[in-house]
Amino acid sequence: MQNLPLVTVICLCYNHQEYVVETLNSVLFQNYENIEIIIVDDYSTDNSVKVIEDWLIKNSNILFIKNSSNLGNTKSFNAAVKASNGQFLIDLACDDVLLENTVSAQVNHILNTPIDRTAFVYGNAINIDKDGAFLSYYFDVNEQEQVLEERKSGNIYTEILAGGTSMCSVTALYNRKIFEELNGYDETLSYEDLDYWIRASRQYNIYFCDQVWVKKRQLEHSLGTHFNKSNSFAKKINLSTYHILNKSNSLNKSKEEDYALLQRIHYEMSQSFKRKEYGLFTKYLILKTRLHLQLFMR
């Protein structure tokens, strides 16, 4: 075990009383032996804290952080990283489930990349319903359960920027050294993954492994379901996307990257118009105009 890198699994809980024990057990019973578990409850309003504390009676060596207010994923995860010791990091929601060999497969894959230049590795997932029943694969697969569409690895900044390369963030294993170098998640945003993918891929490589690593639970209140809704939380998420793309403009170094960003902005503009978020649509229009001027000056 001494030769195995320490992996910290940060389990983020918010109103997951029905699923948190299954999630924690999926980490506890990994076939990888060198794991540090940190649990963060983000001020749940259900019975999650009690359920976790009952589970901890038999697992008392695990750090449990109870937020005194609702901080959100970005702040909660960053705080847990500061309290952790792992060389690699996993961001796990307490309604998702790791397969038994997930961590060992992730570590094996990342150690076979140019590790000092690898921001993270990721794989495929199975989407499950509230009862754990199979719904679909996150990335479509063939009869041999191989992902149908070829997914690029290495320097994929342009692909991520354009929106043509979607990531399965729940399957990611982060290189802690690079995560800290990039100052972790942006705590001003309502969600974390797109911004981190863009910033990480600007300087480092990202690698895909064609294996299923996680069971991702699809619930009505899950974060991913809010992007095309019109409630107040969805508007915060959509505004965060604008801020991410606005920041990305300053990262671009070529016309090819500018065109990739324009492709993404055009898509987000059309979506904001469909949602009747006309203020956000105007922001994108201004950003698009500025980017066209930038292209002219290159």
Give your account of this protein's structure.
- With 298 residues, the protein is of the alpha/beta class.
- 40% of the residues lie in helices and 19% in strands.
- It has helices at 20-28, 48-56, 73-82, 102-111, 157-162, 176-181, 193-203, 232-249, 255-274, 278-297, and strands at 7-13, 35-41, 63-66, 88-93, 97-98, 118-128, 134-137, 173-175, 205-217.
- The relative contact order is 0.13.
CA-to-CA gap between the ends?
53 Å
Broad shape: globular
Helical percent range?
Answer: 25-40%
Number of strands: 9
Mean pLDDT: 94
Beta content? 15-25%
Instruction: List low-confidence stretches.
Output: none
> Secondary-structure element order, as H and E?
EHEHEHEEHEEHEHHEHHH
- Count up the helices: 10
Largest sheet: 9 strands, mixed
Structural class: alpha/beta
Radius of gyration: 19 Å
Quick rundown:
The protein is an alpha/beta fold and 298 residues long. It is built from ten helices and nine strands.
What distinguishing features does this structure have?
298 residues, alpha/beta, 9 strands, nine-stranded mixed beta sheet, 19% strand, 10 helices
Topology diagram in text:
Elements: E1 7-13, H1 20-28, E2 35-41, H2 48-56, E3 63-66, H3 73-82, E4 88-93, E5 97-98, H4 102-111, E6 118-128, E7 134-137, H5 157-162, E8 173-175, H6 176-181, H7 193-203, E9 205-217, H8 232-249, H9 255-274, H10 278-297
Parallel strand pairs: 1-2, 1-4, 2-3, 6-9
Antiparallel strand pairs: 4-8, 5-9, 6-7, 6-8
